[in-house]
Amino acid sequence: MLCVPNSRHSYDSHIQPHEYFWVDHQSFLLSCGYRLRPRYDPAWVPSWKLAKPKNTRPFNCEDGSSLLKDHVLDATRVTDGVKVVLKRVHSDGDEIQIALYLSSIQMSSDPRNCTVPILDVITLPDDKYVLLVMPYLRIFNTPPFHCRGEVVEALRQFLQGLEFMHEHNISHGDACLLNLMMEESRVVPKGSHFKLSSSHDGVNLNLTWRHRCTVAPVRYFYIDFGLSRWHPHGHESATALGVVGQLKDIPELSAAVPYNPFKLDICQLGRTILEVIEEYPDLQMFIPFAEHMTRPNPNDRPSATEALTEFEAVVSTIKRRTLRARIWRKTDTISERFSCFINRIPVL
Questions:
Q1: Is the pLDDT of residue 8 over 60?
Q2: Could you tell me which residues come within 8 angstroms of residue 320 by beta carbon, excluding any fewer than 6 positions away?
Q3: What pLDDT is attached to residue 51?
Q4: Sign (positive or negative) of CA dihedral 66, 70, 76, 78
Q5: Using CA atoms, how far apart are residues 20 and 70, in angstroms rounded to an integer?
Q6: Among 64-73, 173-182, 207-216, which is the least confidently predicted range?
């Protein structure tokens, strides 16, 4: 939804139309206890206009870049300074109902539930939309994995989380890379910037982090239930339509022929796992299990429970020493690896 400019504010020329909503609601959100970044203050003066030297460019400033998505933005909770993410959703849609159900006390008591918790719901003045307040997270595969054990823990949580959702007859609909997240506070204690996750301050590419295996446990989460659905009659009769999600080339996707959304979830997660395996040559032992999840015929794919069982069978064959051994991305050069060992600085 593109917010149409109104008479309440005049917008700096650097504010894009899809950001007007956040400028218009900055004061309201502050009254609700959430502070947006300076760029979205109605009285914002671009920092590069005040900077010395005078030829400072916008891309060299934290407040110099616009949003990629109009409905999601980070904020700071005023009471404790904790970073959160705000997402605008329809007040009467499936997304809010499913998100709140999965975040309920009853559902949260299951340790397999790794769906993102809803911390707060802000009702907007127009009543057509609400803002879901969620923890600040980062995509799960950055910073890079240090050892097989870190990968195992991430994949285990995502497989358990998918099993949990499917047990409750909920299909995710987009179980792909950009919706698989990690809670970063242990791994990146200085925090990262919402627009530039490889930076602490949104300008300098100087991210520092700790290896996940040294600060475990690290939690992983599914986000974005915009394509999720509840299927009260179970898996066998569940159907979906549409070429949707991040991966548009999954065989059964169709705008005309119904397909099973639970089998789609399996394939989406399997494809994402294969993407990670492709990046790390030392993860080849997981290829057969992931390929089973991505078979062209949906009926040949395992259920979430079966996929988890297959995964644990593979893990059981890996020696503890092998789980702890260092792994590298195939793009990491010899000089980068040597520098990492000498300086004890992670490679990014």
A1: no
A2: none
A3: 73
A4: positive
A5: 9
A6: 64-73
Residue 335 or residue 20, greater confidence: 20
DSSP class of residue 259 equals B
For 138-342, which CATH superfamily applies?
Answer: Transferase(Phosphotransferase) domain 1 (1.10.510.10)
The two tokens of residue 177 are: 């890379």
Read off the pTM: 0.93
Contacts of 78 (CB under 8 A, 6+ apart): 30, 33, 34, 35
Which tokens sit at 290? Answer: 């992931």
For 61-76, the pLDDT digits (tens) are 999 989 988 999 999 9
- Helices and strands per DSSP (H, E), number in the chain: 12, 10
Strand partners, 86: 73, 133
| Alpha-carbon torsion (230, 235, 240, 244), positive or negative | positive
Q: How confident is the model at residue 116 (pLDDT cuts 50, 70, 90)?
A: very high
Residue with tokens 């904790």: 82
pLDDT > 70 in the chain, percent: 93
Query: CA-CA distance, 109 to 112, in Å (whole number)?
Result: 9
* pLDDT per residue as tens digits for the range 296-310: 999 999 999 999 999
Cβ contact 290:270 at 8 Å: yes
Report CA-CA distances (Å) from 307 to 13, 72, 147, 150.
51, 32, 22, 19
Which one-letter amino acid corresponds to residue 1? M
pLDDT at position 77, please? 98
The structure tokens listed for 240 are 């979906």
Q: Which of 124, 127, 108, 126 is nearest to 116 (CA)?
A: 108
Q: Where are the domains of the chain?
A: 18-89+117-135, 138-342
Radius of gyration over every alpha carbon of the chain, rounded to an integer in angstroms: 22
For residue 195 the two structure tokens come to 């627009």
H or E segment to which residue 34 belongs: strand 34-35
C-alpha–C-alpha distance, residues 245 and 217, integer Å: 30
Task: For residue 84, give the nearest of 69, 101, 72 by alpha carbon.
Answer: 72
Query: What residues are paired with 240 via a beta bridge?
Result: 259
